[in-house]
Design a protein that fits this description.
- With 224 residues, the chain is α+β, with helices and mostly antiparallel strands.
- It has two domains: 2-76, no CATH class; 86-223, no CATH class.
- The protein is built from eight helices and ten strands.
- The protein has helices spanning 33-44, 53-56, 58-62, 98-117, 120-128, 141-159, 165-178, 211-214; strands spanning 2-5, 9-14, 17-22, 27-30, 66-69, 86-87, 184-190, 195-202, 205-206, 218-223.
- Strands 6-9-8-7-10 form a five-stranded mixed beta sheet.
- Strand 2 (9-14) and strand 3 form a beta hairpin.
- The longest helix is centred in the middle third of the chain and has 20 residues, at 98-117.
- The chain is elongated, with a radius of gyration of 19 Å.
- The protein starts with a strand and ends with a strand.
Length: 224
């Protein structure tokens, strides 16, 4: 017998805890210490059951997060992304340009409105469906990156940064993806105390935050 994770449920290891993100409900939760140990064993076996699983993880089973399956589930793998090694905060992004700033402001405000009006999973799905232009990994991505990093940095000075990491990151990710830059939106969590954070990353470079800040978080969801 095997178990599989319900669609829309993501998890990661943060400190000594297993943290879950129920994306359709927009909520995070963690397991008790004994259940954490059993779940990590289950995940290592890709959902293949063993003695004590059903009892230890009854809260997940009863809530519909763990479902019976006929084969191993690769979704037990923790969502990975290249570990960041630096950020774009000290890079020279060139002269000021008005049009990219206006686009960044519009995207930020539109994203803020969508997050207020729609469930998080639908907002993320909309961003993920944007067509990535051909040549996203071509060498000329760097000037495109510098242009938009500068524009969104200036937009943040106008609209603010506090408690707006998801809005700012979703807005930047959407603009970059639509323009052919293969950036990633990352949502990370930490425990003790619990906190969630979001940022945009290109390869191993953090674009809209500092390396020191995001290094405190374990990725739980990566939008590519």
């Amino acid at each position: 017998m095997h178990y599989r994770l319900r669609e829309g449920l993501y998890h990661c290891i943060a400190g000594q805890n297993v943290i879950f993100l129920d994306l359709p409900k927009g909520r995070y939760f963690a397991l008790s210490f004994p259940a954490t140990h059993i779940f990590r064993q289950l995940a290592a076996r890709n959902g293949e059951t063993f003695a004590g699983v059903e009892e230890a993880l009854s809260s997940l089973v009863n809530a519909g997060y763990l479902l019976e399956a006929t084969e191993r589930d690769p979704n037990f793998d923790i969502m990975g992304i290249q570990a960041p090694s630096g950020d774009a905060s000290r890079r020279d992004h060139g002269p000021f340009r008005l049009w990219p700033l206006l686009v960044a402001l519009y995207s930020d405000l539109l994203t803020s409105l969508r997050i207020r009006l729609h469930p998080l999973d639908s907002v993320l799905a909309r961003s993920g469906m944007l067509t990535r232009a051909a040549g996203g990994d071509e060498p000329d991505s760097q000037p495109e990156l510098d242009l938009w990093v500068s524009a969104f940095d200036r937009a943040a000075l106008i609209l603010g940064r506090t408690n707006r990491c998801l809005t700012r990151s979703l807005a930047m990710f959407s603009v970059l993806r639509a323009r052919g830059v293969a950036a990633n939106l990352v949502i990370g969590v930490r425990s003790e105390p619990f906190s969630a954070h979001a940022w945009v990353q290109y390869q191993d470079v953090v674009l809209n935050d500092t390396f020191g800040q995001v290094n405190n978080y374990s990725p739980i969801l990566v939008l590519r």
